[in-house]
Amino acid sequence: MRLSQYFKKIFQSNQSSGILLIFCVSLALIIANSSLGNGFQQFLDLQIGFEDLHLKYPVSIWINDGLMAIFFLLVGLEIKRELLEGELSSFKNASLPIFAAIGGMLVPAVIFAAFNSGTDYSNGWGIPMATDIAFSLAIISMLGKRVPASLKIFLAALAIVDDLGAILVIAIFYTEQIHWMYLLLSFGIVAILFTLNFLKVTKLIFYIIPGIFLWYFLHHSGIHATIAGVLVAFSVPTNASNTKISPLEKMEHSLHFPVNFLIMPIFALTNTNIAFNSSMVDGLFNSLGLGIIGGLVLGKLIGINLFSLIAIKLKISSLPQRSSWNQMIGVGLLAGIGFTMSIFIALLSFKHEIVFQDEAKFAILIASLIAAVSGYMILNFSSKKMKKL
């Protein structure tokens, strides 16, 4: 095998992107807790952009609201393709991630509330509701062909619905003010995008340019702007032909490399910039820490599998193809990787309580680590067991 072919194979591997992501997390934690930490944080806080367009933000905002909208665009494209012609094309398969996501949001919130009702931490009930799409998909991708594609699609769909739910929670309960004019303009752009689809416009530039405006209007409306990526993705046209590549498939193919090997690693590097202190460790054993860890690890596991079981027993849904309940337990644990969205909600929950923020961040990190390791191990073990049968 030529060296160029070898590297091409590596870069096309989802496992490679997962390893790179974990490396970036480790590097970020090392930097944050070294002499470089302050300088790195100052870089993330550096304001760049265009003042006249009201687009001057810290580097961290550009990454979390800007680059991650492209990640959501790719995930949205994959979900749409699977809905129309893949693993989610039947109602039974497509409905399962929705039921699972609802359970995965409700049960963690109830567990957190049980620990923190009536305390100073009670406003953080939304923290354990979220699933971090980037990290959860990176971990399951590291298992390669040991996990059926249907299960990966199920996790991606579940995480998308989960994060859309989290975005709605932020918009309704944690957004101080919604700017309705910008929101109405966003609805107008969405209408234009789907009209273009209806008119069978296939040139991608006619979706990309309105998509940029959609991101701008949503960002200024007060709603998390990454949802723009999903909305644009669902408007991009596809076709039923197996011989001719569709606009959706063309965009999806062109986004895989930059998302997996540039956007996600940058995202991991900047969002794991957590400097440890003693108050964080203390926070693991109070009601806040227990509510977050219990919600993300146990709440996600119980909620996702309980609601999935109900949907399947009622014959509304069916298990992902070639998967087992043991694997569903592993997926339920991986969904407990809350990380970025959970940290984001924690910052909104305790805007003026820095100590609470630090405690919540550390609890989220520990919970996500427990969920990632245990979910990976269970999926790996159950996949080996299924091969022997």
Quantity of strands, as a count: 2
How far apart are the termini? 35 Å
Mean pLDDT: 87
Compute the number of helices.
16
Radius of gyration: 21 Å
> How many strands, what sense, and barrel or not for the largest sheet?
2 strands, antiparallel
Q: In terms of structural class, how would the helical and strand content be classed?
A: mainly alpha
- Strand neighbour order, sheet with most strands: 1-2
The share of residues in extended strands comes to: under 5%
Shape: globular
Order of helices and strands: HHHEEHHHHHHHHHHHHH
Percentage of helical residues?
over 70%
Uncertain residue segments: none
Structure explained in plain terms:
By secondary structure, the chain is mainly α. 73% of the residues lie in helices and 2% in strands. It has 16 helices and 2 strands. The chain has helices at 3-11, 14-32, 37-44, 59-85, 91-116, 133-141, 149-174, 180-198, 205-221, 227-235, 247-271, 278-283, 287-313, 325-334, 339-349, 354-388, and strands at 47-50, 55-58. A two-stranded antiparallel ribbon has the order 1-2. α4 (59-85) runs antiparallel to α11 and α5 runs antiparallel to α13. The protein starts with a helix and ends with a helix.
Question: Quick gist of this model?
Answer:
With 389 residues, the chain is mostly helical. Helix content is 73%, strand content 2%.
